[in-house]
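Weekly structure sync, notes
Attendees: PL (lead), two postdocs, one rotation student
Agenda item 3: pending single-chain targets
PL asked that the sequence for the first pending target be pasted directly into the notes so everyone works from the same version. It is reproduced below exactly as submitted, 230 residues in total.
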Amino acid sequence: MIVLRVLALAIAACIAAMGAAQAQDTTTLKKEMPGQWELSTTERSKTCVVTMKADAAAQGFKLELEPACKTALPFTKDIVAWSIKGLDIVRLQDATGESVIDFTEVEAGIFEGLRQGEGVYILQDLAAARSMAKSMDQMIGDWAMVRGNGQPVCGLTLTNTEAGPDNFQVFLKPKCDAAIAQFNPTQWRLERGQIILMSQSGEVWQFEADDNAQWRRVPDTADPLIMLRQ
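Predicted structure, written out during the meeting:
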């Protein structure tokens, strides 16, 4: 009996701790969300500014959508409020409280939501989103690919010419290394701080900025491939 009583007390303590953690996380989100956010496709080809407020609304809190939202992202016409559901879900909801799109935090200040049949959407702080857009503009132009020893192996040009949803055209210059020529990327995008190169066959190469303002292919290897701005 004593063992059962101890076990029951332990279970009750765990449940109480989980409830406290949930309340803490929910409270934190309610405090952090009011402000201006950008709702967009994954690479910001279509964007919408959402102003979340701390004022109570029916079944949630008030928000405002900029007038261009309904044209850029038609599903936003149904959004009238926001709320926190469960432990960590930020819900943009309709007049009945039903979800139009639910977001979960995937990185600090960056939330992801999925609409079936449409794809993934991003919700992030407006200032941070605009800073990222500026960064993307800085990516456009000529680049060189080099090995870790500095040996040039290819030249390429990143453009701002759209090549499908959220992707842009990239062109290789003549006389590239055989492996890169075989990869033959045709599209690129900037995603969560990485340069993503994609081939027509669906192969993907990812590059991350390092401490030397270079972009190294990841995962790293003994013979790294590096992109340098020209």
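Discussion points:
- Helices lie at 2-32, 69-72, 126-139, 178-183.
- Residues 140-229 form a domain with the Lipocalin fold (CATH 2.40.128.10).
Action: rotation student to compare against the earlier draft before next sync.
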